[in-house]
Design a protein that fits this description.
The complex is a heterodimer. Chain A is mostly helical. Chain A is built from 8 helices and no strands. In chain A, helix 2 packs across helix 4 (67-86), helix 6 (126-137) packs across helix 8 and helix 7 (142-149) crosses helix 8 (153-176). By secondary structure, chain B is α+β, with helices and mostly antiparallel strands. In chain B, the strands form 2 sheets. Chain B has an 8-stranded antiparallel beta barrel. In chain B, strands 1, 2, 3, 4, 5 and 6 form a 6-stranded antiparallel β-sheet that branches. The longest helix of chain B has 31 residues, at 51-81. Chain B is elongated and about 115 Å long. The chains are: A mainly alpha, B alpha+beta. At the A-B interface, helix 2, helix 3 and helix 5 of A face helix 1 and helix 2 of B.
Chain lengths: 177, 494
C-alpha cells in the first residue's frame, strides 16, 4: 500500500491500515524511544503515547517531508513532553563552570554495538540523556534544544559536555569489566 | 578535543541509524484501544461483541419475556369474560383528592361509592357509550343508601348525563364493617389494615352486582374496578386510595373474573438480591478490560431509602506480557571449503576451485514475546445507600457508596514460547502485577419490576471509579480506572 493511500485509510479509521502503518514504523520508533527513556517501561509509555498522537494528528501531516521523519519528530516531542511532565531533571550549570575532563585519543565507541551503546545512554541522568540524544543523534542545535526544553543555549551545551564525559566513563567502565 | 567529540558523535549517530528494536505487543493493543475508542461504530461493534452486550441483551430479553408473560396471563383471564382486551384509558374520578380524614364506616349511615372504570374505546360497546356521552372522560358515580343504589353517569365536568336509582335486594352484596372483620380472619389480612389501621373504608362489589346496578357497564371491557366508599358527611374529603383497594386480595376474591391489573406486589422492608454484572473497565493508556461480577446482597428499605450490602465475586481477565530470552543453536553463517584446485591448461592456466559449502552453527541469544491471559478474582463487599420511588409495579432508584475489593485468587499461567529447541535464559515480566486491595466508589441508577409479592427484577446501569490504581507499578499509580456496566438480578422480598 502506498504511503498516500495508507494515510488516507488511516484517516478514515481503517483498522487494517492503522495496523499496517504501526507495523511499518514501530521498530524504528521504539528504538528512538528506548534511547530517550531510562528503561523499557518508560519507552513503552512514550512509544504508546507517541503513536496515539500520530494517529490522532495524522491529518496535520502536510506531505512536505517523509512520513517517517514526521513520526520520528512526534516521538521525540512526546519524549520531551514526557520528561518535562516528570520534572525529574534540572539544568543548572553554566558552560563556564565546567571543567571538561580529558577525552581519550581513540574512542572505544566503535567497539560497542548499538544495543550496548543504547544501554549506556539510558544510564545517563535524564537531562544529560535528553540533550545528548537531541543534539548528537537527532541533530537539533543548542538553540532548538533550549527552546524545546525551556533552557538556555549554554545550559544545553553544558549538559551535552557533561553527558559526553559521563558516557566516556561508562564506556571505559564497560570495557574494563 | 572538538574533533574527537565530532568523530565520536559521528560514530554514535551512525550506529543508531536504522536502529530498530522489537516493541512489546501490548503497545499496539493499547494504541488501538485508544484510537478506536472514539469511533461510535467501534463502540457499537465492541458492545455487541462483548460479554457486556451479551449480558444486557440477555437481561433485556428475560425481562421483556417475564413482563410479557405477566401481562399476557393477566389479559388472558380478562379475555374469558371480555373479548376485547385493549385498554386505552383510565377514567379518573371527579374530585379525587388526598385523604385528609376518615370516618369509621357505619352501616346505618348512607354512604357514597365511586366506581372507576377502565373502558375500551375500541370496542363497540365503548363506541356506543361514547355516543351517549360525548365527553372524553366518563365516570360512573353511584350513591349507596343502604340497599338503595343511585347511579350517576357523569362527564369529567361532573355534569350528570344519566341518573337512575335501583333497589338492591341482596343486602349481603354490600358488605359492612362486620362482614369485613369476618373476612379478615378467614380470607385476607389486608382488610384489617384497611379498617383499623388506615381508617379507610372498603365496600366490595362483585361483578354481577356492578352489572346489575349499572347495566351499561356490561358492554364495556372492564379491566379494573376500584371502589371508593365515602361516608356522606365527609364526601369531599375521604377517599380510599386506589392502591389500598388494589392491594387487597379481598376485592379480587369477591370478583374472581376480574383480574386486578394493579396488584403491584407486596413491598416489604427486607429483600435479597442475586445479581450479575458484566462490566467494561477503562484504564487510561491501557487496553480495556472486562469483568464479570456475581453478587448476593441484602437490601433493607426504610421509608424511601435503602441500605444494601453483601458480598460478591468479581472475575477480571488481564493480559500479561513477557519477554522470553533464550539461546538457540542456529546458523550464523557459512563458508566454502576448498576441496581441490584444478588448473585449466587450455584457458591460460586459470585455476578452478572445487569447494564445499559448510554452515556455521552457534548458540544465538534471542528474545521473543509471550502473552498470557491472567485471571483475578476479587471479593467485593459493598456498602450502598440509596433512594427509591415506587410507581405501580415499578420502582426506580439511585444508589451509591464504597466497595471494598480484596484479591482472593489469581491465576497466572506460565508464558508460552513456541520454539522447542531453545534454552531459556530468563523470562522478564513486562506487565505490572495487581494490588491486593483497593476501594471503588459505586453509583447505580436503575429500575425494578415487581413480578409478584415475592419476586422482582432489577436492571441497573452502574459506574465505578477506583480510588487507586489496580497495579503495583509505581508510575502507574496516578492512573485510576473506571468502569461501566449493567447489573441485572432477581430480588426476593421477605
Amino acid at each position: 500500500m502506498e504511503q498516500q493511500e495508507l494515510i488516507e485509510k488511516c484517516l478514515k479509521k481503517n483498522s487494517k491500515a492503522q495496523n499496517l502503518l504501526y507495523k511499518r514504523y514501530v521498530s524504528k520508533m521504539y528504538g528512538v524511544c528506548l534511547r530517550f527513556a531510562k528503561d523499557k517501561m518508560e519507552a513503552d509509555d512514550i512509544c504508546q503515547d507517541g503513536f496515539i498522537k500520530v494517529f490522532n494528528n495524522l491529518g496535520s501531516f502536510r506531505h512536505e517531508g517523509s512520513l517517517e521523519g514526521w513520526i520520528r519528530r512526534t516521538m521525540v516531542n512526546t519524549a520531551i513532553n514526557y520528561y518535562k511532565k516528570s520534572a525529574k531533571y534540572a539544568f543548572h550549570l553554566d558552560i563556564n563552570e565546567i571543567e571538561i575532563a580529558g577525552t581519550t585519543q581513540e574512542s572505544p565507541v566503535d567497539r560497542l554495538s548499538a544495543m550496548e551503546l543504547m544501554e549506556l545512554i539510558q544510564q545517563l541522568p535524564d537531562g544529560y540523556r535528553m540533550v545528548f540524544n537531541l543534539n548528537v543523534i537527532e541533530g537539533y542545535t543548542h538553540k532548538e534544544i533550549g527552546d524545546k526544553l525551556n533552557i538556555s543555549e549554554n545550559t544545553s551545551k553544558s549538559q551535552l559536555s557533561r553527558a559526553r564525559v559521563a558516557l566516556q566513563k561508562l564506556i571505559k567502565k564497560k570495557h574494563n569489566t | 578535543m572538538i574533533n574527537d567529540d565530532k568523530n565520536s558523535d559521528k560514530i554514535i549517530k551512525e550506529k543508531f541509524e536504522g536502529f530498530q528494536a522489537n516493541p512489546p505487543g501490548h503497545i499496539w493493543r493499547n494504541v488501538k484501544g485508544t484510537i478506536a475508542g472514539g469511533s461510535s461504530l467501534f463502540i457499537i461493534k465492541e458492545f455487541f461483541s462483548s460479554q457486556l452486550g451479551a449480558g444486557i441483551s440477555a437481561a433485556t430479553g428475560i425481562a421483556i419475556a417475564l413482563i410479557a408473560y405477566n401481562v399476557y396471563t393477566g389479559d388472558e383471564e380478562i379475555a374469558t369474560d371480555i373479548p376485547d382486551k385493549n385498554i386505552e384509558k383510565v377514567v379518573e374520578l371527579p374530585g379525587e383528592s388526598d385523604i385528609t380524614s376518615q370516618t369509621e364506616i357505619n352501616n346505618d349511615k348512607t354512604s357514597t361509592a365511586f366506581v372507576e372504570l377502565i373502558e375500551d374505546k375500541k370496542s363497540d360497546a365503548g363506541a356506543s357509550l361514547s355516543q351517549e356521552s360525548p365527553g372524553d372522560d366518563i365516570s360512573a358515580l353511584r350513591s349507596v343508601k343502604g340497599a338503595e343504589v343511585e347511579i350517576e353517569i357523569t362527564e369529567r365536568s361532573n355534569d350528570p348525563i344519566n341518573t337512575e336509582t335501583k333497589i338492591i335486594d341482596d343486602q349481603a352484596s354490600i358488605p359492612n364493617k362486620e362482614n369485613l372483620a369476618k373476612l379478615k380472619a378467614t380470607q385476607y389480612y389486608e382488610a384489617d389494615e384497611i379498617i383499623s389501621e388506615d381508617q379507610k373504608q372498603l365496600t366490595k362489589y362483585n361483578e354481577s352486582f356492578l352489572k346489575e346496578v349499572a347495566p351499561e357497564i356490561q358492554n364495556l371491557s372492564i379491566e379494573k374496578i376500584v371502589v371508593y366508599n365515602i361516608p356522606l358527611q365527609n364526601q369531599n374529603t375521604t377517599i380510599v386510595t386506589e392502591k389500598s383497594i388494589s392491594d387487597s386480595a379481598l376485592f379480587a376474591e369477591l370478583a374472581p373474573p376480574i383480574q386486578l391489573k394493579d396488584d403491584y406486589g407486596k413491598r416489604s422492608n427486607l429483600a435479597f438480591g442475586v445479581f450479575y454484572t458484566p462490566e467494561r473497565i477503562y484504564y487510561p493508556g491501557r487496553e480495556d478490560q472486562r469483568s464479570n461480577t456475581f453478587d448476593v446482597n441484602g437490601i433493607y428499605y426504610f421509608s424511601d431509602f435503602l441500605v444494601q450490602s453483601g458480598f460478591g465475586i468479581s472475575i477480571v481477565e488481564d493480559m500479561c506480557d513477557y519477554n522470553v530470552n533464550y539461546n538457540k543453536y542456529e546458523i550464523v553463517g557459512s563458508y566454502y571449503e576448498v576441496d581441490s584446485l584444478v588448473f585449466d591448461s587450455i584457458n591460460n592456466g586459470n585455476p578452478t576451485y572445487i569447494t564445499t559449502l559448510h554452515n556455521v552453527y552457534d548458540s544465538v541469544n534471542r528474545t521473543c514475546e509471550s502473552n498470557t491471559i491472567n485471571k483475578y478474582s476479587y471479593l467485593r463487599i459493598p456498602l450502598i445507600f440509596g433512594y427509591r420511588k415506587e410507581f405501580k409495579r415499578f420502582s426506580y432508584f439511585i444508589k451509591g457508596g464504597p466497595v471494598l475489593n480484596i484479591l482472593v485468587k489469581s491465576t497466572e499461567p506460565e508464558p508460552y514460547y513456541f520454539a522447542s529447541d531453545i534454552s531459556v535464559q530468563h523470562i522478564d515480566r513486562q506487565s505490572p502485577g495487581r494490588i491486593k486491595t483497593y476501594w471503588q466508589l459505586y453509583l447505580g441508577v436503575g429500575l425494578t419490576y415487581q413480578l409478584s409479592n415475592r419476586f422482582g427484577l432489577l436492571v441497573e446501569p452502574t459506574a465505578s471509579y477506583n480510588l487507586s490504581s489496580i497495579y503495583e507499578r509505581n508510575y502507574m499509580t496516578s492512573k485510576r480506572p473506571y468502569s461501566l456496566g449493567i447489573r441485572t438480578g432477581i430480588l426476593i422480598s421477605f
